[in-house]
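Example for tutorial group B:
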């Protein structure tokens, strides 16, 4: 089966062919770890995760790299604002990110490099670019020389003279040309800087990704797939291509995919609008697998509009699929090429989900479909056992319920309420009915 990816570089859906047969390398830009992960971070990670799962089905060896940006202006600003040391902020947010992505059932990437572990690699990549005369040193900065790279704009389709972003702002004195960008800059922050041949300083954001890729796949290797949010196309990914082409003779990357933005009630998420949806909030309120399904409801290249309906629709779909699977205790799985084909069409998750809903419905009358449904749910990470309750938890809940019953019979309503609150904090929903108390774990 052939995978087709819409390649931002060519603006076409193309058949994917790895540079080396049966061996695939993929890099997806990870988060800057300065504040709690939001739903936009989750969408970018999920698209990477789905490609990774699919590539693993199709190829023998897949390397998936998702980085952590732990050196950045935003982190320094956050530390100045809150008084919390930089390393504590980055450690805490990294833990939060990894924990939340794991709850959303994302597979761990093969490599998860951090910038702070790669300073030497970054310095050596910058040295290569300097040796190739594609950068210059000026006022303790190392600056990429845009005049040295004629293909600039191939990804974003911006023509060199149209790069007004840099030209509009007051040109920095250390730049020969306002369009040039920084590879290394001096740092005054004692907690965020490293010694380098160009003095104490820190890397620019773009060079971080290029160096981490090169250090893992090899400087003279071509990356197969590079992904990230479409807000990264310009200038971040464009600059990565300029750097990656100037430090090696191999082509930097063959296929680029970009995911669309997440909107909240059709509005862009922003701190000033107060509409940022944090992953922690939604996965505490709703089963993370339902959230995972909701994130797949739009095609990855389209914007995803997040509303209450997005989550409710995903809940309904999840219930339909899970009810069908729970009707049968078997664990047999069977490949389903029709489903795989939908995913191979540039990760068409809306069609794939529709297919699953139909398969779940049809399986009610035809149990032979269940092994395929199970296989498909595994493939896109819909862990159907997430609702299954451990024996330990079940015993604890039932013990508390019987204690509550005793308290009520003794008219000790304060204790009964206290136990009810305790159960609520364990996410247990109690219902007092004519035939006694029933309970379930809230979704
Ligand atoms: Zn990046």
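The residue assignment follows.
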């Amino acid at each position: 089966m052939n995978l087709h990816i819409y390649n931002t570089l060519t603006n076409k859906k193309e058949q994917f062919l790895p540079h080396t047969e049966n061996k695939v390398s993929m890099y997806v830009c990870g988060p800057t770890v300065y504040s709690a992960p939001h739903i936009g971070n989750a969408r970018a990670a999920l698209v990477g995760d789905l490609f990774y799962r699919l590539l693993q089905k199709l190829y023998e060896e897949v390397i998936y790299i998702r980085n952590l940006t732990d050196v950045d202006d935003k982190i320094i600003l956050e530390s100045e604002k809150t008084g919390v040391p930089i390393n504590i902020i980055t450690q805490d947010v990294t833990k939060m990110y990894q924990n939340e992505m794991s709850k959303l059932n994302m597979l761990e990437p093969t490599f998860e490099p951090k910038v702070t572990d790669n300073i030497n690699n970054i310095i050596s990549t910058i040295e290569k670019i300097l040796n190739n005369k594609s950068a210059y040193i000026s006022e303790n900065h190392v600056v990429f020389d845009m005049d040295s790279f004629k293909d600039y704009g191939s990804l974003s389709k911006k023509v060199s003279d149209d790069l007004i972003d840099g030209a509009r702002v007051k040109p920095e004195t250390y730049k020969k040309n306002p369009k040039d960008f920084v590879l290394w800059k001096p740092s005054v922050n004692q907690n965020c800087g490293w010694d380098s041949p160009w003095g104490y300083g820190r890397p620019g954001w773009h060079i971080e990704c290029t160096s981490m890729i090169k250090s893992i796949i090899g400087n003279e290797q071509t990356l197969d797939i590079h992904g990230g949010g479409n807000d990264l196309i310009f200038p971040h990914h464009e600059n990565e291509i300029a750097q990656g082409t100037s430090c090696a003779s191999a082509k930097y990357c063959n296929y680029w995919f970009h995911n669309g933005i997440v909107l909240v009630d059709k509005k862009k998420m922003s701190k000033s609008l107060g509409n940022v949806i944090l992953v922690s909030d939604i996965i505490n309120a709703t089963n993370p697998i339902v959230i995972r399904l909701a994130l797949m409801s739009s095609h990855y290249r389209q914007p995803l509009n997040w509303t209450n309906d997005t989550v409710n629709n995903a809940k309904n779909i999840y219930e339909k699929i899970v009810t069908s699977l729970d009707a049968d205790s078997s664990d047999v799985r069977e490949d389903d090429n029709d489903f795989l084909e939908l995913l191979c069409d540039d990760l068409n998750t809306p069609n794939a989900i529709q297919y699953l809903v139909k398969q779940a419905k049809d399986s009610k009358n035809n149990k032979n479909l269940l092994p395929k449904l199970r296989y498909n749910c595994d493939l896109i990470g819909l862990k159907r056992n997430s609702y299954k309750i451990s024996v330990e938890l079940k015993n604890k809940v039932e013990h508390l319920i019987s204690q509550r019953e005793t308290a009520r019979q003794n008219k000790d309503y304060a204790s009964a309420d206290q136990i009810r609150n305790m159960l609520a904090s364990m996410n247990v929903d109690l219902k007092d009915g004519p035939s006694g108390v029933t309970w379930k774990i809230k979704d």
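The first helix runs from residue 39 to 58. Compare this with the pattern of hydrophobic and polar residues in the output above.
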